[in-house]
Design brief:
Elements: E1 16-18, E2 25-27, E3 32-33, E4 44-46, E5 53-55, E6 60-65, H1 69-72, H2 77-80, H3 85-89, H4 92-105, E7 108-114, H5 125-130, E8 143-144, E9 147-148, H6 161-164, E10 172-176, H7 187-193, E11 198-204, H8 206-219, E12 223-232, H9 237-251, E13 252-255, H10 257-261, E14 264-265
Parallel strand pairs: 3-5, 6-7, 6-11, 7-10, 11-12, 12-13
Antiparallel strand pairs: 1-2, 2-3, 4-5, 4-14, 8-9
Helix pairs in contact: 8-9
């Protein structure tokens, strides 16, 4: 059996191998290599928590979740529910920076957002109850000043104009009907067919739709990266803190958009010149 198929084997560069085949990582004392079978010329080092990581930007995508009027704008659902929509707007500067970086590096940009059927037949009672805890509370599909909540084609389900102006015709749009952006959508198929392995997460609410989609990505063996300053929530601060803690300790990595922008070309520690595994796996 080839060395690159032996889980927990010692690599010649001094790391420990995690998993086998082309999805393997190498764990070192001071960084994690997410693409050891790739040429060093393709790689950048990202200063993240808990550990920095090395990755190939060509396999990354920026996933922006629920940056919609109902969460971000006055008169939207968050505002009408008595929550502070301005806290959700705190994600906007980071999302814009992440978009700028994504354009510079030619990353795929994936917009994931609520788009429910007007008749609400896609939603069961548990999901409806999640957002309507009292008879007087406005739930998904009910009328507000600007139209029905998070309904396909509505003002509330649309992105603010300042984000629409930053969209590209090549961007991918995924309409969802649950907090989890993978549930009942084509998100997984789109990512797989484009060769995406690492997902950079941004959006709102960090403790609900962002984290549930991020956890599902982890369950599906995507490399998960949370962009902390490109996410926000109207929930209490401890909700956000729990997501950041769990991302760093369970699901993957977290960093700021400043750290994303500052990623530097990777200089391999291993003696071979192309930066690939010593077992010749770059030929795969």
């Amino acid at each position: 059996m080839s060395n690159h198929r032996e889980i927990y084997s010692q690599t010649e560069s001094g790391g420990i191998q995690l998993a086998g085949g082309v999805d393997r990582w190498q764990l070192h004392e001071d960084y994690v290599h997410l693409a050891p079978h790739r040429s060093a010329a393709e790689l950048l080092r990202f200063e993240a928590e808990l550990l920095p990581f090395v990755d190939r930007p060509a396999q990354q995508a920026l996933v922006i979740i629920d940056m919609q009027n109902d969460f971000l704008e006055p008169g939207g659902w968050t505002d009408a529910s008595g929550l502070d929509y301005r806290r959700c707007r705190e994600a906007l500067p980071g999302v814009k920076r992440a978009l700028e970086i994504a354009r510079e590096r030619d990353l795929w940009v994936v917009w994931v957002y609520w788009s429910n059927r007007p008749d609400l037949r896609n939603l069961g009672a548990p999901t409806l109850y999640s957002f309507k805890h009292r008879p007087s509370q406005k739930g998904i599909g009910e009328q507000l000043e600007h139209g029905p909540v998070l309904t396909q084609g509505s003002w509330g389900a649309s992105m603010p104009g300042e984000l629409q102006a930053l969209m590209s015709e090549d961007d991918i749009h995924i309409e969802k009907v649950r907090m989890n952006g993978f549930f009942g959508t084509h998100l997984d198929q789109v990512l797989r067919t484009q060769g995406i392995e690492t997902l950079l997460f941004a959006g709102v609410n960090i403790d609900q739709c962002v984290t549930s989609t991020m956890e599902e990505a982890y369950f599906r063996d995507y490399n998960v990266v949370l962009l902390e300053d490109a996410c926000a929530t109207s929930s209490p601060d401890y909700c956000r803190e729990a997501v950041v803690f769990n991302t760093r300790n369970c699901w993957g990595f977290s960093m700021t958009t400043e750290q994303l922008a500052a990623a530097a070309p990777w200089t391999p520690d291993a003696p071979n010149q192309n930066g690939a595994d010593q077992d010749g796996a770059a030929q795969e």
